[in-house]
Design a protein that fits this description.
The protein has about 1000 residues and is mainly alpha-helical. The protein has 44 helices and 10 strands. Strands 1, 2, 3, 4 and 5 form a 5-stranded mixed beta sheet that branches. The chain starts with 10 loop residues before the first helix and ends in a 9-residue tail after the last helix.
Length: about 1000
């Protein structure tokens, strides 16, 4: 939808409407249908929408919300719709309260409401069922008759906006139940899709490219059809969802000559619906669920599709096709295709085997019983524990198992499928009731999240105050009331999901009975291993029997070997669930070879067997993390803490726990060990949260940064205490640790260095320290900085804490280690290069006395808010990017940072925007790349077409980078990586397979590079 213009409360949108109040071409086109609605609504009397609203959201600031509504009503008081609206709202207090709540809580809906007082009045005065059906009818009948694509795009967007506001009011006001809301949202998408396809086919016929059998129904018999997938296919579409589509055509109907026409038609369909115009967009389109998206065209023949599914189709595709439904084009051809595909989706037998494949990653993510704590702030209600995805998996898995023999289980909709599973006695009444209740609640919350800003988000606000405001928008009195209900539903879902997939092995009747006698391999065990999925059972048995000897240092003791022998059957069971069980056994063998202190670890695993699933996940997916675990197995202790899957600890919690540990240190050496031990544990916890899908890239980056902040402050305190005991203090001394780079931007990964600058000041009239070994001024701070670097980088029994990079200090390697603040300010003002100011955009004070820290921040802000020559700035940045490409290369797509169109390009764009515009718009400034782009889009500095590319791309790149840095000690090689690791990458990008991921990454990089060129590169620089 159109973004809010400058000014108060979206009133600029109202002024835009008054410039053309009658919308002549659209009104003339749709006049007859609109008249019908008005007549019917007047006959319906009390059935109008305004009178049927029974509830409004709670307010964070009631007086302010109503004042904003009244201010707008006053502005439109002189026009007829404004007068009628004021009168209507005076009579309908609940409707008035709802509109005031929109003004407070939803910029998107408030903009829609203010855009046209006449439309809002019409919406409130009409009966909602008739109104929405009229919109559907107008779309389906009027759009195909238009001749101008610009008009088509405009009408589609305006009718979508009208419907979106109606749906939101009916949903929030509890005029419609959730099932009706989801149904209407889906029917709106269906109507839009059908109308757009009919228009495009009719247009192709008018231009002589296609021949239609029935001009009144242009798509009928043409062989071209669109399958709705996901929630649209299921009739459960959410408020601001992408629509997942697959486009097919019947080659025998189309003929070879029109295949290019269908490809062009599909590209036009995407452009027509997805392209942002002055009226916004209609729907975001995702075509990546088609067969082998990296290698196939965006529309493919049904014959090719059937061949793919029958020969190479995977179980996740079977699960996805459960929801497939023809929604546009030649619907009969679509139904024929799905009928032919039915044997692939629905097997004739009870298909338990496929479930292991579909759910392997999901089981590993959540196979740790006892970790019931779920974070509220920042929780992803779709993908997180207890979320919507788990309910869908719960249903789809049982549909795949039994749907072939029981057609009554083949319903596309989740709620209907739950009812069918209960009716067929596949699940009990409590499971059906609790899962259905959770689904309704979570889908309602999902709609509210997306109504705030018309964004496809599923993540609750991360800050408590923001969550409190959102809770009120959902109708709760406060954050705690919302959290209580949310946690009840999430835990219910978690419990039922665990009951279906996560039963302890000790309770399973199919636990394998395996024997590994030392003298020879057991034939029956070899057979069982083969049945379990191991391809080389003899080699597996040989390795396991080796584990009963002292072949490795970790197995020298009889106790360790005995503990391991007890958990071997459980280990093998978990390994058998992995995509390559034999490779998992080999990985565990390598793990044993490098393991220190094994007896304690095996005892822990024996007493907490669910942790074996975590170990299997680490071994199969993250070699770097596995190496860390082998070297420091004691980090596993922290995983048994019940808070493991709760909210990630904040800085205060980290600092308190670290302080308690350091208080027990009896020497400086032990203190450094304890700092490193704490860091290893916390890094392992964050890493496993990334692997298990319970921490997003944003959350992980911030968690790594919070950990680094806490560790730096602790080390600074320790170093300063010891240093001043030896050298004393200088009068007025104060110094700040300035973080830059990934730490400054709170975008750290598992192996990020620390980019630091030390800035100091003191009383220059008394420059000598007062200790037994006095030092002067600059020398004093240079020495203390050396001590700090040593404490952070020294290798102890628990490894290195961090690598520290000080090259971003003034004058780089040639400058002093620490910089006096006036010299720092002078250097930045008069000598610093453009790249140094770019680095400064991510500068953040990590440790300093409050007053001095504010002084340092003021210096940085003054530098960043200085007016600059944008052309010269862009030229400098372009030169720097070219130099990096020459040094590092930019052609490896999977070098996510340095590839053309990669993360460096986005970071440079964010830094350019700040340096070029902060002097006029200081609110743009932020150390986080993602937030800078959000700010730039919100402030109108970044065009919508670039924001639509860069904002999702930076989050995709950061998600992939977190996995790559956590798991691999080397560059990625797609041809040789373990399947478990590749599955992790795909999950991080929320795509089904690596081919889709590869295509997604290539597309993102191409679009990012295009945005880079528009904003910084050749397109904006004068040609010389």
């Amino acid at each position: 939808m159109p973004t809010r213009p400058a000014g108060k409360g979206g009133h600029g949108a109202q002024e835009r409407t008054f410039a053309h109040p009658t919308r002549l071409f659209e009104r003339n086109l749709l006049l007859s249908q609109s008249s019908i609605v008005q007549t019917q609504s007047s006959e319906a009397g009390t059935a109008r929408l305004a009178q049927r609203i029974v509830r409004a959201p709670e307010f964070s600031d009631r007086d302010r919300a109503f004042a904003r509504l009244d201010e707008w009503l006053e502005e439109i008081a002189e026009i007829e719709p404004g007068k009628k609206l004021r009168h209507l709202l005076a009579e309908q207090s609940m409707c008035r309260a709802l509109l005031a709540a929109l003004a407070e809580a939803s910029p998107h809906l408030w903009d829609l409401a203010c855009a046209s007082p006449e439309q809002l009045l019409n919406l409130l005065q009409n009966e909602p069922e008739q109104h929405i059906e009229a919109i559907f009818s107008q779309l389906r009948t009027a759009i195909p008759r238009l001749r101008d694509e610009t008009q088509v795009a405009q009408v589609l967007r305006r009718k979508k906006a009208e419907a979106a506001l109606l749906i939101a009011v009916a949903d929030i006001g509890e005029v419609w139940p959730l099932t009706r809301v989801l149904d209407v949202q889906t029917k709106l998408a269906d109507s839009v899709m059908a109308a757009a396809v009919d228009y495009l086919i009719a247009d192709a016929q008018r231009r002589g490219k296609l021949t239609c059998a029935d001009p009144e129904q242009p798509a009928r018999g043409c062989g071209y059809f669109v399958l709705a997938m996901g929630k649209m296919g299921a009739g459960d579409l959410n408020y601001s969802s992408d629509v997942d589509l697959i486009v097919f055509y019947e080659a025998k109907q189309a003929g070879d000559g029109v295949v290019p026409i269908f490809l062009r038609l599909t590209r036009a369909l995407v452009r027509l619906l997805q392209e942002r115009t002055a009226d916004g967009y209609v729907f975001r389109i995702d075509l990546r669920l088609r067969p082998d998206p990296a290698a196939t065209q965006i529309a493919m023949s049904t014959a090719a599709g059937l061949d793919y599914y029958e020969t190479r189709g995977q179980n996740w595709e079977r699960a996805a096709l459960i929801k497939a439904r023809p929604c546009a084009g030649d619907l009969a051809a679509g139904e024929r295709f799905l009928a032919e595909l039915s044997p692939f989706i629905w097997r004739k037998y009870l298909d338990f085997a496929s479930v292991a494949d579909v759910h392997a990653m999901k089981r590993q993510m959540h196979a740790y019983r006892g970790h019931a704590e779920i974070a509220v702030e920042g929780h992803n209600i779709k993908l997180g524990r207890g979320g919507i995805r788990e309910i869908e998996f719960f249903v789809q898995t049982q549909q795949l198992i039994a749907g072939g023999r029981h057609p009554e289980l083949r319903d596309r909709a989740t709620l209907a499928s739950l009812a069918a599973l209960h009716s067929g006695e596949w699940i009990d009444e409590r499971a059906a009731s609790e899962l259905a209740g959770a689904y309704r609640f979570l889908r309602t919350v999902e709609n509210r999240l997306q109504m705030v800003a018309d964004e496809q988000t599923h993540t609750l606000p991360a800050e408590r105050d923001s969550l409190d405001r959102f809770a009120r928008f959902c109708g709760f009195s406060n954050r705690d009331a919302f959290a209580e209900t949310l946690l009840l539903h999430l835990r219910n879902v978690q419990r039922h999901y665990a009951g279906l997939f996560e039963q302890p092995l000790s309770e399973r009747s199919d636990r394998p009975n395996l024997a590994f006698p030392p003298q020879a391999d057991d034939p029956q065990t070899l057979d069982r291993l083969l049945e379990m999925g191991f391809r080389q059972p003899l080699e597996v048995s040989t390795l396991v029997r080796r584990w009963q000897t002292d072949a490795y240092r970790s197995l020298k003791g009889a106790f360790a070997r005995g503990q391991l022998a007890e958990i071997v059957p459980v280990l093998l069971h978990h390994f058998s669930r992995m995509s390559n069980p034999d490779e998992a056994v080999i990985a565990f063998d390598r793990f044993l070879a490098g393991l220190h202190g094994s007896g304690r670890l095996f005892s822990l695993l024996r007493e907490n067997q669910d942790l074996i699933a975590l170990l299997a996940l680490v071994l199969g997916s993250a070699p770097r993390l596995a190496d860390s675990l082998a070297q420091f197995p004691e980090v596993m202790d922290a995983v048994i803490d019940p808070s493991f899957f709760g909210a990630l600890p904040d800085e205060a919690e980290l600092g308190a726990v670290l302080h308690r540990s350091l208080e027990q240190a009896s020497s400086h050496e032990e203190l450094l060990d304890r700092v490193r031990m704490f860091a290893q544990e916390q890094m392992f916890l964050i890493g496993t949260r990334i692997l298990s899908g319970t921490a997003s890239a944003d959350q992980a980056g911030e968690a790594f940064a919070r950990l680094a902040d806490a560790l730096i402050r602790s080390v600074v305190h320790t170093v300063e205490t010891r240093f001043t005991a030896e050298h004393g203090r200088i009068a007025g001394q104060r110094f700040a640790i300035l973080a830059l780079g990934k730490l400054g931007g709170r975008e750290m990964t598992a192996n990020s260095d620390l980019d630091l600058i030390v800035i100091y000041d003191f009383d220059h009239e008394h420059p000598e320290s007062a200790g037994r070994r006095p030092l002067y001024g600059a020398q004093y701070f240079s020495r203390i900085t050396q001590r700090l670097i040593g404490a952070l980088t020294a290798r102890t029994n628990y490894g290195v804490l961090y690598q520290v990079d000080m090259r971003l200090r003034p004058s780089g390697r040639s400058g002093p280690l620490a910089t006096q603040i006036d010299g720092f300010a002078d250097y930045q003002e008069n000598e610093a290069w453009t790249w140094e100011h770019m680095a400064l955009t991510r500068a953040r004070v990590v440790s300093a006395p409050a007053e001095f820290g504010k002084r340092v921040e003021d210096v940085i802000r003054r530098v960043l808010c200085r007016a600059r020559d944008a052309q010269a700035l862009a030229a400098d940045i372009l030169d720097m990017r070219n130099a990096i490409a020459a040094e590092k290369g930019d052609r490896d797509r999977w070098d996510v940072k340095y590839a053309a169109g990669g993360l460096i390009d986005i970071e440079f764009i964010a830094q350019y925007l700040q340096l070029a515009h902060a002097w006029r718009t200081p609110d743009l400034l932020d150390t986080s790349t993602a937030r800078v782009l959000d700010n730039a889009w919100r402030l109108g500095i970044l065009e919508a077409r670039d924001a639509d590319v860069l904002r999702p791309a930076v989050r995709l790149y950061q998600s992939l980078t977190q996995i790559l840095r956590l798991c691999l000690p080397r560059p990625l090689d797609p041809a040789t990586e373990a399947p478990g690791f590749m599955a992790l990458l795909c999950r991080a990008a929320d795509v089904p397979d690596f081919a889709t991921l590869d295509a997604t990454l290539a597309e993102a990089q191409a679009k990012v590079r295009a945005s880079f060129n528009r904003i910084i590169g050749q397109e904006r620089l004068p040609i010389t």
